[in-house]
Amino acid sequence: MKSSLLVFLILITSGLYAQVAINTDGSNPDNSAMLDVKSIDKGLLIPRVALTGTLDVATIASPAISLLIYNTATAGTSPDNVTPGYYYWNGTSWATLANGPWTVNGNDIYANITGNAGIGTTLPDDKLHLFDSTNLRILIETPDNFYAGVRTRNSQREYFMGTIGDRWSVFDNNVGGERISVLPDGNVGISTTTPASSAALDVNSTTKGFLPPRMNTTQRNDISSPVEGLVVYNTDEKALNVFNGTEWSSMKPFPPCGFPVRVNHLASRGVAPVDKSVTYGTVNGIPGEPEKCWITSNLGADQQATAVDDASETSAGWYWQFNRKQGYKHDGVNRIPNTPLINPIYENADWQSSNDPCALELGTGWRIPTYSEWLNVTSFGAWTTFDGPWNSNLKIHLAGALGGYGGGLDSRGGVGVYWSNTQGGTDSGWALYINGIYNYLLNFNIGKGDVYTLRCLRDY
Question: Which of 149, 191, 212, 310 has fewest C-beta within 10 Å?
């Protein structure tokens, strides 16, 4: 009897309204519904189908767009696999209608039962996982001059990252201050919202400094393909080093002339023949070059000479061939290093700054004197005999030389030859030559392959 009545009501209702109402109280369907099912103790049972995957068109042939089923199977291979749940046909594949705790889920947005959400992926690895097979962007937009960005917070700190006015900013919400600002022109400010227009990076602080990478000489030399202008702090030299495109240079600070210069010589650099620390005196006011600052002992010498004919190794220092950075020590018996010398040397070049032992060992600004500078101090100092340089504040003495072929010690205490950085010809260079045996002095053009001492200066 009840079944007959229900069928009768359905037929009457559908005939009157072209709509269908299924109920037990005889009420009409809602005007907005083609099918209105009403019950207080029963549900709607969707057809249960076992799909083989999201691309399955065999189980239900030619499914209509929006066809709804409940899939009962766990089947298929990712990303086309299916699990039990509601699916609808979107025209190309079966898409989940509901999945776990999320009530709306389609082809592009997915949530799993662990609470992870994915956009563009059905396998989110985190709370929010975005994926695209090409470029991927996220747009956070607000009109006018409002903030637009992301706020992050844990139990310790809260930060905002995003657009403030016309700049991108990292903002510390705990103290209410911008930590990093990037302006439209690309200038970056750290602890300032107004980086200087001439500065690509403006770091502002009254209590902290800038700390570059710290490393020893070996570690510095192991840097692969250093770019020109690269800066590190060398812990061996206790100084900043900068790469000039060819080699590393020391940026040791200059004390005023008259103060000592302390140098840690290391043979590993290919300039000093041995490792040792030396303190060099400095002096200016030398007639002919009064503004220049000179060291008062030879490069590599442990001490200033005690007499014009001081023949000790500790006062002589080291010896060099023209335009070569490797120095040689001679203890009276052995030459260190005992490598073959290049002789003769033919090249059309002055002593290059990249090979200048004064610059490489004492630091940027130090160099070998020019031929003109030796001429000036010789002339204005009235140096005419071997003791003229010795009686000056430079205390230049008869430090000897090494033979250009065998490298043997020659006339230490009898002659002194001090290179300039100026060539005389392709096979010769200018040097200050003093002879204590025959008591004369001259600026002499001598073979580049010979091995002589160095005295260094700087322009301030």
Answer: 212
Q: Label residue 152 exposed, middle or buried (CB < 10 Å: 0-12, 13-18, 19+).
A: exposed
For residue 9, the surrounding DSSP H or E stretch is helix 2-17
Pairing mode, if any, of strands 128-130 and 117-119? parallel
In tens, the pLDDT along 190-202 reads: 888 888 888 888 8
Distance CA 174, CA 96 (A): 43
Q: Rounded CA gap, 425 and 362, in Å? A: 28
DSSP SS3 for 397: coil
Beta-carbon contacts of 367 under 8 Å, excluding residues fewer than 6 positions away, are 353, 356, 358, 359, 421, 456, 457, 458
Provide the H-helix boundaries in 339-385: 357-362, 371-380
Our measurement of the distance from residue 303's CA atom to the centroid of its chain's CA atoms, rounded to an integer in Å, reads 41
Average pLDDT over residues 139-158: 84
Bridging pattern class, strands 94-96 and 128-130: unpaired
Quick count: other Cβ atoms within 10 Å of Cβ 195?
Answer: 22
What are the beta bridge partners of residue 22? 37
CB 81 within 8 A of CB 54: yes
CA atoms of 40 and 181, how far apart (whole Å): 61
- Per the listing, tokens 């609470």 go with 115
Preceding amide of 256 cis, omega within 30:
no
- Numbers of helices and strands, H then E, in the chain: 6, 31
Determine how β-strand 231-234 pairs with β-strand 214-215. Answer: parallel
Q: How far from the centroid of its chain's Cα atoms is residue 342's Cα?
A: 39
Confidence tier at 15 by pLDDT (50, 70, 90): very low
Domain ranges of the chain: 2-37, 148-203, 214-243, 252-458
> Which residue, chain included where needed, has tokens 């082809």?
107
Whether pTM exceeds 0.90: no
Mean pLDDT (the chain, rounded): 89
